[in-house]
Write a structure and sequence with these properties.
8 helices, single chain, Spore Coat Polysaccharide Biosynthesis Protein SpsA, Chain A, 230 residues, seven-stranded mixed sheet, alpha/beta, 37% helix
């Protein structure tokens, strides 16, 4: 059995952080651990996290909001287990899919496993936000051109890696640009990517979704930046 570290970046998720943490704990083992990085929350999330005192949970705080990328980088500085899984603090991704993310590491030579919202699945996928779906497909398509991969969901919030693999690259992006940065830098190193189908309960902007149009433009910029330059 592979040991796991679950990285949870969060910013102003007081309505969901307790729920997602409970769900994560149901799908990890005794030797697994959780690293939560609060990215400058001001809605009560920080106070809730300060009340947690469990030996398998590490909590780090940013004094100000910097971005998801910086939160992930902060988490990676800590002690990690064999497999790293990034888990958003909202309820869009279901930790019951961890077994799917880990399976390729047990049965194949996978170095990286992404959970895809767009490949055949027996799980559920919420139907909404056409333009968000289209942006994801376009960004994945452009990324595939430069990486020569045929992945279906580069922007997925469920990315997992072997510890030594994710630590083999120097990450620079502080916000959502870290998604294409990770993919391109690892593809350049010729690591083996796998995708597995996952369930997805995407939320609307009224429900607290944070990624927007400017992040899509930043992702395009990052694809070109990290593909063309070392």
């Amino acid at each position: 059995m592979k040991t796991k570290t679950i990285i949870i970046p969060c910013f102003n998720e007081i309505g969901t952080i307790k729920i997602i943490l409970e769900r994560v704990q149901k799908h990890i083992n005794n030797n697994d651990n959780i690293i939560i990085v609060d990215d400058g929350s001001n809605d009560g999330t920080k106070d809730f996290l300060k009340s947690i005192n469990e030996k398998n949970i590490i909590i780090k705080f940013h004094e100000e909001n910097i971005g998801k990328g910086q939160a992930i980088k902060t988490a990676l500085e800590n002690e990690l287990n064999e497999i790293i899984i990034i888990q958003d603090a909202d309820l869009e991704y279901n930790p019951s899919d961890y077994s799917l993310l880990v399976k390729p590491y047990l049965e194949t030579d996978a170095d990286i496993v992404y959970g895809s919202r767009f490949i055949g699945t027996n799980n559920y996928v919420r139907v909404h936000l056409f333009w968000h779906y289209l942006a994801n497909k376009i960004l994945t398509f452009i990324c595939n051109i430069f990486t020569n991969l045929n992945m279906t969901d580069m922007e997925t919030g469920y990315k997992s890696f072997k510890k030594d693999v994710i630590r083999s690259i120097n990450l620079q992006e502080k916000s959502f640009g870290i998604e294409p940065e990770i993919t391109i830098k690892l593809a350049k190193k010729k690591y083996k990517f796998y995708e597995v189908p996952i369930s997805y309960a995407g939320r609307s902007y009224d429900e607290g979704k944070k990624i927007g149009l400017k992040d899509a433009f930043r992702a395009v910029f990052c694809i070109f930046k990290y593909s063309i330059f070392k």
